[in-house]
Amino acid sequence: MGNGKKYGGWLGSFILGLAIGAGWTPCVGLALSSILVLAGSSESLYQGIGQLAVYSLGE
Fold this sequence. Notes:
It is built from two helices and no strands. The protein is an all-alpha fold and 59 residues long.
C-alpha cells in the first residue's frame, strides 16, 4: 500500500472508462428507451413516475 507506485494514471482511467461505457451502452440503451417511451405515453404523470421508479429500482 504505501510503496508510492501509481498504476495507469489518467490515460489508463480514461481508456477503462471508454471500455466500460462501450460495454454498458448496449445493455442499458434498449431497456431505458423502452421504459421512457412507456412512461411518456402513460395516462397520468404519477403512472409514468411509478414506471420510472420501478425501473430505477431494478437497475
